[in-house]
Every structure is written in C-alpha cells, then in structure tokens.
Design brief:
Strand content: under 5%
Number of strands: 0
Largest sheet: none
Structural class: mainly alpha
Number of domains: 1
Shape: elongated
Helix content: over 70%
Radius of gyration: 37 Å
Amino acid sequence: MDKHDELPKATQREAELQRKIDDLQGQVTGLHRTQEETNPELSSEFQIQKEKIDEHSKQLEKSAEKLSQLESENLTLRDENQALNAASNKKRQFRTQVPPHADSGNT
C-alpha cells in the first residue's frame, strides 16, 4: 500500500478539489491580465469606477454612523421629554387635588 492509498477518501477528494481551485484561480488571474493588456482603457475606467464606489461606501458608512448617533440622541431626548411630561402631570394632579387654604380670608 502506498501513501496515496492510505489517505482517507475525503482527504483525497479535498486535495483534488484544492488542485482544481488552484487551477481555476490561475485561469482567472490569467484572464484578468489578458483583459488589462487587451483593453487598458476599460481597465482604467474600471479602476476609476471602483474608486468611486469605495468613496461612496465610505460616505455611506459615515452616514450610517451619524444616523445611529442621531437615533441614540433622539431616544435620550424622548426619554427626557417623557420624564418631564410625567413630572408636569404629577404637579398638575397635585394642584387639582389640594383643597384651597382655609386661611384665605374666611375667618
């Protein structure tokens, strides 16, 4: 029995698939190189568009962070507003429940 036969079938299959993946990656790299050599204008336009997308992605990320910050501030202000409303309602209820002073001139 040689070493190749000793490997479990799954390991043999993994090795075979890895070789195929490596071959495909080599082919893709070759195609990219050929594309760049064949049409450099298209390649430079692609690079320009990629840079624009990267910049827009950064702006979008900043906007998402700002939105998250504003949402957090909004929740804080809402909670503060609810607390103030609750305190105001308690004061109003207290004023309506307390009878007028007995010494208001009726003695």
